Amino acid sequence: MAKIILTGDRPTGRLHVGHYVGSLKRRVELQNSGEYDEIYIMIADAQALTDNMENPEKVRQNIIEVALDYLACGLDPKKSVLFIQSQIPELCEMSFYYMNLVTVARLQRNPTVKTEIQMRNFEKSIPVGFFTYPISQAADITAFKATTVPVGEDQAPMIEQTREIVHRFNYVYGETLTEPNILLPDNSACLRLPGTDGKAKMSKSLGNCIYLSDSEEDIKKKIMSMYTDPTHLRVEDPGHVEGNPVFTYLDAFSTDQDFEKYLPEYSNLEELKAHYMRGGLGDVKVKKFLNNVLQDVLRPIRERRIDYSKDIPYIYKILEEGSKVARAKASQTLKEMKEAMKINYFSDEALIRSQVEKFS
Ligand code: ATP
Ligand code: MG
């Protein structure tokens, strides 16, 4: 069976380091491994509109921002199909049919959607489009017959919902759709990177992000004012590394080489953590180290992004071409679905013959 990747991001803002460790970095590695037959990377503008309905300009502006982040991180349009969700109308058609396979109660149980409803104050009036976005996400994944979906942990319930839809569709209409598998980051700090404010998830909607495109000064400012351990008041106090985002970021980004380069008195992160927990290590020193580490990761990304931003029409061209390729694939899958669902009236010779016989 072909190995196919589908994943993507909502154009609700520039991408941040949570996206990088949660999904983007892995995608680039998978792309360059040469092990995948097809790779589709989607900018989910239609999904972004489900909770930004009144703000289409925000979504429109962020298409290029996200595409620049992709290219800057190393996604290569020669190897990966970069496309825009709304340009593939087949996805809406698929969602419409999948709606018959899912109950309202099942959607209400989705823990990620539950949290997102609270975050957006949608408790009293959830837009139907937002409520059903896990179904539309199932269409995004199955349209490309994706076998592998590299995403952060918050997406696990969506992949589970997709697998259920695939089972049900194949059971009712016959084997047609491919069951996807989630691919989570190996490093547990990267599953759901916390925000600079210590909140559970770095998220565009929460304003607690370090963006891939932030300037050197912005990164430094954000790191130096990060939330740490509130009980660690004086340098001598013993500190906590659990729930301390400065250490979670070091878990996600630092290597032993970084210690050699910037903090040679420790040989690795475990030693630094032990000192912090014992007491006698100040937050400023740890933050300065984190700043050095992150600057090294983000500098080349930022520089490539600036280069790509010099030719914006070329970026639109990449997305237009990618959308054509993606649409061809989705329409092939939809054709197979419609055959399975017996709604292919005009291309089925046997059907026409049988109806002739019935009425003769
Ligand atoms: P929004 O607030 O608009 O939902 P977001 O920051 O959650 O934005 P998405 O576009 O919804 O970003 O997510 C894109 C991908 O990035 C998904 O695979 C998601 O799992 C991953 N991701 C987002 N935030 C994080 C995070 N803090 N840690 C790890 N992965 C993340
Ligand atoms: Mg999200």
What features would you describe in this structure?
- The chain is mainly α and 360 residues long.
- It has two domains: 4-192 and 312-354, HUPs (Rossmann fold, 3-Layer(aba) Sandwich); 216-308, Orthogonal Bundle (Tyrosyl-Transfer RNA Synthetase), CATH 1.10.240.10.
- Helices cover 54% and strands 6% of the residues.
- The chain contains 16 helices and five strands.
- It has helices at 17-33, 45-49, 56-73, 90-98, 104-108, 111-119, 128-131, 133-143, 156-173, 216-224, 245-253, 256-262, 269-278, 283-308, 312-340, 349-358; strands at 4-9, 38-43, 81-84, 148-150, 181-183.
- The strands form two sheets. Strands 1-2-3 form a three-stranded parallel beta sheet. Strands 4-5 form a two-stranded parallel ribbon.
- Strand 4 (148-150), helix 9 and strand 5 (181-183) form a beta-alpha-beta unit.
- The site of adenosine-5'-triphosphate (ATP) has 18 residues, from helix 1.
What's the helix and strand layout?
Layout: E1 4-9, H1 17-33, E2 38-43, H2 45-49, H3 56-73, E3 81-84, H4 90-98, H5 104-108, H6 111-119, H7 128-131, H8 133-143, E4 148-150, H9 156-173, E5 181-183, H10 216-224, H11 245-253, H12 256-262, H13 269-278, H14 283-308, H15 312-340, H16 349-358
Parallel strand pairs: 1-2, 2-3, 4-5
Helix pairs in contact: 3-14, 4-8, 4-15, 8-9, 10-14, 11-14
The chain binds adenosine-5'-triphosphate and magnesium ion.
